[in-house]
Amino acid sequence: MKVITMESSAFTALTEQIAEIAAHVRAVSGGRKEEAPDRLLTTREAAHLLNVSCRTLQRMRSEQRIAYVVLRGKCRYRQSEIDRLLEDSTVTGDAATPEQMKRNHTLRTGGKPKGRRT
């Protein structure tokens, strides 16, 4: 094993150059990772990712809260659909607008505010 020593100013200059190169690479590539193909998950895999039972997943399917694919009589769920459902169900901690606050309330309570009939 070799140990290389250098002055701290040289090390700082080197790390700054590496950061500039990394920023350039991100700018050229558009800042996005190459997308993997959308995986199809079984009911058990999707339920595990959502931390719900298979029966709850069936209920979500019948309520049309999650999209699915039927292949040879078996239900499959796209990974992107699982990701979308998780994103749509995420309560944000920094709700700045009234719409975000209303959305958070709806997610927390599971529906309309109490006492309102519309």
Automatic annotation (TrEMBL):
Keywords from the UniProt entry: DNA-binding
Xref: Pfam families: HTH_17
Keyword DNA-binding appears in the UniProt entry: yes
Keyword DNA-binding attached: yes
Entry-linked InterPro entries: DNA-bd_dom_put_sf (IPR009061), HTH_17 (IPR041657), SinI_DNA-bd (IPR010093)
SUPFAM superfamilies: Putative DNA-binding domain
Helix-turn-helix domain: residues covered: 40-88
Domain of life: Bacteria
Biased composition (Basic residues): 103-118
Region of interest called Disordered, as start-end residue ranges on this chain: 90-118
GO molecular function terms attached to this record: DNA binding
NCBIfam families, per database record: excise
Protein name: DNA-binding protein
Source organism per UniProt: Bacteroides caecimuris
